[in-house]
Structures are given as structure tokens and as C-alpha cells.
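> run fold Gliding motility-related protein TPR repeat-containing protein
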Amino acid sequence: MNKFSSFVFIFFILISACSSERDTFTNRTFHNLTSHYNAYYLADLKISNVEDMVRADYKEDYTQVLPVFIPIDSATIQAGVDTLQSARELASKAVEWHRISKWVDDSYYLLGKIDYLQAHFDDAQNTFKYVNVNSKDKDLRHQTLISLLRLYVDQREYENANFTIDYLSKESGINEENRFELYKTLAYYYETRGDKNGVIGALVKALEYVQDKKEESRINFILAQRYQREGLDALAHDFYMEALDGNPPYERSFFAQLYAQQVAELNASKDLKKVRKYYQDLYEDPKNNDLKDVVVYEMALFEEKQGDIEKTIDLLHQAAKEPGSNPRQKGYIYQKLASINLDKFKDYRATKYYLDSALTYIKETDPVANQIQEQKETLDQFVFHVERIQSNDSLISLSSLSVEEQTTIAENFIAKEEERLLAEAAAKEQPKSTSIFDNLLAFSDRGSGSTFYFDNAVAMQQGTIDFYRNWGNRELQDNWRRSAASFQTSQPRVDIADQTDSTSVDESSNPLNQLPDVESLLAEIPSSEEEISELNHELEESYFALGKLLYFDLEEIEQSIDNLETLVRQYPESSRKPEAYYLLYLAQKDRGGNFQQYVSRLNNEFPGSQYTYSVNNPDAASGNLAYLASSKRYESAYEAYYDGNFNNARTIIQQTLEEYPLTRNTERLLLLDIMVTGKLESRQSYREKLESYIQNSKDEELKDLARNMLLPLMSSEELALLNKQDSTALDSASTANPDLAENQGDSETTESPYKINNESTHIFVLVMTPEEMENAADLLGDLDRFHAEFFPKARLRTGNMKMNRDNSIYIISPFTNAEKAKEYYQLFVEDFESEGLTDEIKINSFAISIENFTQLNKTKNIEEYRTFFKSVYQ
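> ok
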């Protein structure tokens, strides 16, 4: 009975201890033990396991400055989602089932960490704030605030981050573990803000409190990298040697030793043999088999410093072939090859293809990828037009030959391709060569050199080509008996092998797949006038686009002149001719050449063109003030025309064009002058000027207007050839010229007032009230400094004008297309600062094409265009 009574007594004590409400010593002890070891501990362990997965899955790139924190990969988090869900359930139980335990706040903190890892940032932020406000544990509150600081930095909420830093700086009693995390998070804060000195200072302080030897090694390596890039080689060497302590991964040890040698001896050594032997020893060390691409790359950089560019290129090509553990390293190798081809040889085509290769190894999310993509945009256009010119020229030349001659050329081409394939196969049998370059984008492996047929690449390739010559490209069959197969004498059928069939031939390794047949080559040659005309049209466009791109973007004046001269010589009827003359005028003027010849050509061939007015009046104002003045003159001329004062209207128009050539009003003034011609001169003169205007104008609305003004001057036969006229254009014509409006019905205008034209020249507009312009007195100077820093080669110009009674505008121009204008807008909104210029003014700025600006100046409705801008450009 006594034993039974004791058991019952203990049982009731345990039952009463399970209550999460009663605050007794026994109850608290039970819940503290249970929540700590059954819930909190297990949840914390599972979170740590996922964090270890993040570190293990991340591939450190030691050729670049390591990030302070290892980035959290969403794919890794997704792989550990079940583990995090289990941790969430355990932490939640610690909160719900053990409310009186001292581990409730710690469990809330774990819930916040889980939300942070899963990118539920709002939930994480709220949880961290709750723990900070409610917890009585000072160390936990500090730990929570440091986690909150990192979250703010992730989100670039720098004001909240600054407030948190200020608060923590005034806190006392921060333990060593939290101090380490605080200084490391401060380094992250400075890293995101681009403050190099701040990063170094914070990491040096973090080293005073670090407890993990591997983490200490990593921080020492980061400091060494940063000191090396600041030119402080002695400090860099010391930290590289410190990074070797703590049993770091072999790859980090390798780079620490390599870079330590560089800053201590290699960079300063004049004994080139000693340096080259050092690299050769590294290359031959079996432990470095997965790092050979790095060793050869560093050798290439060393040879570049010696000025041996040819050897540098050879080594870079070799580095691209070598094995490596970091795919991004191949991307850096191709990027370096691109840089050399651009800087040393101005080989834009090779540069473009090397950058293409670099992007295949570098992730899209990598900042380097964004830099490469931006650099590649212009080169992509350049290569597209160059290759189109080469291709179309060849095809047009071939089209003039007889079928027999074309066939001979095709057969010779195939024969040369066969020889090339054999040569490539033979090269595989030779030891690796570092000569310049085997292939621009891909490199072959070394062959075995065996005499056994199926081990000999040359023999196999020669046999395959011989078989192809005799039998065609026959498909492989499991049932090879000829009695079971229908023999076909027609052209052999080529099937794509099933990728799941292990017996199928690797199509990519079959050299015959690279060989076209004669028929396919002949099919590419144009055979009709329409096809040749289309090729010529493409050539015309490419010569012009290439000339413009070379002048404005690549600043290659001589090549620009060559392409534009080819355009005007080979396509004398081109509608691009006036602008081509104008670009040639600018290019010859820049190089100190004979620009007057293009002034003469414009005056003789295109006397009414806006480009002619511009070259005739090179010193006349053509900026935004000129636009304002010409707008007022246009209104006066327009009123004079409708009042019947045609001579007065013409005088105003001619004076305006002479004083203010090539403004955004030029085409409107020219059309109004033609309308005056219709009143004062012959019908034939009127028609000729309209036809010339339609051919040369770039404003589609004004061209439609001119076309409909031309309709009454056309014969019935000519009208019969036209399609049904656009009612909107007819209505516009009727409004502009009442004399042509008889017997024309009213029609509604449904066309949008603004048009999308991404290739058109754009300007950037900053809209301000007169009072705001007065407050921003230093705006022009700040804009000049901004352009000098971020757009030193863009030749941007700035001017201001009054848009309407309530708004004045600053205009920055020119941008060759919409993309460049959008880039300027983005950088302006993010980085431009000027006293008196508010964020609202910056955000309400916009980019606009020249054509759309003409329309905007008519309506004066800025908000209407802003709506269009947000929907199309943003």
C-alpha cells in the first residue's frame, strides 16, 4: 500500500506539472526542460542543418572578392523545405504547449529565422520586432536586432538599418558572440553601400570576437583580397598567410598561397624564369588538377603585364581548355579574351562572340553577367549588320552566275569543308597546342593516336566521309538485312535519333552533320528579282545602321564613313541618303576632312531637307530655346496662312527655318511651306514638293497628311492603283487644307496620339514649375557633372524651355534609341542629386521620342503622355 500510495502521489505531481497555465516551480521546471530539449533544441538543430546545406551548396569564387555573407540560394532552401517545416512545427509547439517556459521567446526567434530563410520577410520582420519588444533576455534581444539589421540591409531599407545600428551602438553588455555577428553584419551593410573602408574596418573588428577557426580563415581571406585591390600588398600578404590557419578548404589554401606569392614576390620579381617556373610547378602539381585553368589564367595575366599580348592570348586559349572546378572561371577567361580583342585590336566581332561564350558560364544573376550583357548590346547590332552585309553581298554575287558556275562553287565549298573537318580530326591526334586560336568558341579534346580504327579519330572521320560520298547519309538500323528493308534509290531519309536510345549515334559528334549538300546550298541563292530586291533592301538598311552605330556608339569615324559612302554610292535612290549625307558631314568635320562636299550635295539634291538647313546654318541655335522660338513663329505663320496672307506666311516660315534649323518644328514648317506653295505656285511644283516631303519626312502623321493633300492632284488611273484611303488621314488633311475638304465626309480619329518607335532618337524631359526651376539653381552644373561621370562619351546636351503657362522643362538629348533613354532615366532617378530637386520631380521625369515630343507640344497634355510613358517604357 505504501508503494502504491507513493506511485499515485508522483503520478498526480507529473499530471499537475503538465499544465501550461499554473506558474509553480514544478510546473516551470517541467516546461523549461521539455520545451528546451524536446522542441527548441530540435528546431534549432534542423535550422542549422539547412544553413549548413546553404554553405555546402555554395561554390566560393576565390578569383573575385568573397561576399561577407554566403548568399542564400532559394533552390537549396526549397530542397530543405520539409526540414524547415518540421522545425516550424517544433518551434510552434514550444510556444503553444509550454507558454510559461523561458524558451518561448527563443522559439519565436527561431520562427523568425525560418521566415527569413524562406524569404517571408514581412513575417520575419514582425516576429523579430515582437521578440525585441517582449523578451526580457538581453542577449536574445541583441541577437534579434542583429538579425533584423541584416534583413533591413537585404531589403536596402537603409534608414531603418541606420536606426538599428545607432540603437545597438548605445547598448551595453553585448556578448562576444553577438558582437561578432554585429560587426560581420556591419561589414555586410558597408558592402552593399560600396564603402570599401567600412567593410575592412568592420571585418577587422569582427576578427576580435570570432570563435570558429574556419570562419576566421574566411574573413582573413576577404581582408587580404580587399587589401590587395587597394594596393596594400604587405597587409594583403599577412592576411593571406593568416587565412591558411584553421584547416581551410584546399581550394582556399591554394588561392591564399598563390595570391600571397603574387603580392610578396611575383609582382615585383624581375626574374621572369623564376616566376614562370613557379607557375609551371603549380600546374604540374597533381593536387591542382581541378585548378589548372586558374593557374594558366594567372600565367596569362602575368604575361600581359610583361607586354606579351600574343603569349597572353595563347595562354588564355589554353586556360579555356584546361579542367577546372569553378565554371565561372571559364567565363572570366572568355571575358578577358573579349577585353583584349576590344582594347588591343578593336575586333568587335571576336569581342561579341567571346562575350557570348562568357555568358554561357556565368549565371544571369551574377553582377558580372549584367555588365557583359550591357557591353554586348551594341556589339550584337554591329555583328548582325556586318554578317548580313557579308551574306547578302555573297548571295547577290552568286545570283549573277550560271547554274553550272553556282554548282561548281557549291561543290568546291563542300570539298573545303571536308578538308577542314579532316584537319580538325588530325589536330585531335596531336598534343594540345596553345597557338592562337583553334576555334573561337569551342575547343577539342586530345585524341588517343591509336592505330586501332575505332580509337583513331582521323581514320574514323575519313571513313565516315568516304561512306557519305558513296552511299549518302543513311540512318542506322537494328535490322540491317537488306532482304527485310525496302531499297530506295531516292534521296536518303535522315531521321533524328531518339535521345533515349543508347545505341543511337551521337549526332553532335558526327562530322557529316556539319556538311550541307549541293542542293541546299543552291536553294539559298536568290533566283527572282523580288528576292534580290529584298536582299538589297536589307543591305541598304545595314549599311546605314552600321554607319550610324560606328559613329555614335563605337566612335569609329573612318569605318562609319566607309559604310555611309557605300550606301550613297550603291543605293543612290535611298530614302536614307539625306541623313547619310548629314552624318558624313559630321564625321568629316570631326576628322578635319572635306565636309563641305556634303554641304554641296545636300543643297543640290535635297534643298528642302531639314539636314540641309542644319549644315547651312551650323552656328544657329538648335536647342530647346530654339524650339520654343520656332513654335511661336510657326503659330504666326499658321495664322497668316488661314487669314489668306500667304506671302507673309512664307516670309515667316523661311526666316524661321534659316534662324532655327533642325528643331522639332522643322517638318511642320516645311509642310506648311508646301501648303503655301499650293496657293502661290503651279500645281506641278506643289505636287513635286509633296512627293519629296513624303519620301524624306520621318513623322508618320505628317506623311499621312501630305499623302492626302496629294490625292486631289492625282489622275484617276493613279487613284485606281491606290488602296482605300485612311479616314483619319483624310480628316487630318481636310483640317490642314480646307480647299481640299470639299465632298469629304467627317470621320472620327481613332489613332493613338503617341506611337511606339524604339529605334527613334529620344530625349529626356524634366518637368518643373517656374518656382521649382528657381529653387534648382545649380541644376545645369549638376547635370554636367552627372554626365561627365556616368556618360562621358555620350555627347549629351542640356537646355530648357517653357512648355506651357504652368510648366517649364529641361531637356537632355540625344539618345539614339529608347533603350539608352530608359537606361538614363533609371540612373537619373536612382543616383542624380541636386539641391532643390525633389524626388517627385525626378520620378515624374520621362523619356520621349522626337516624333512623340512633337505631338506632346501640340496638346501640351503632359499627364496624358506620362500615362503612355508608364505603360510602354516602364
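Confidence is low (pLDDT under 50) at residues 7-20, 432-455, 478-508, 723-750.
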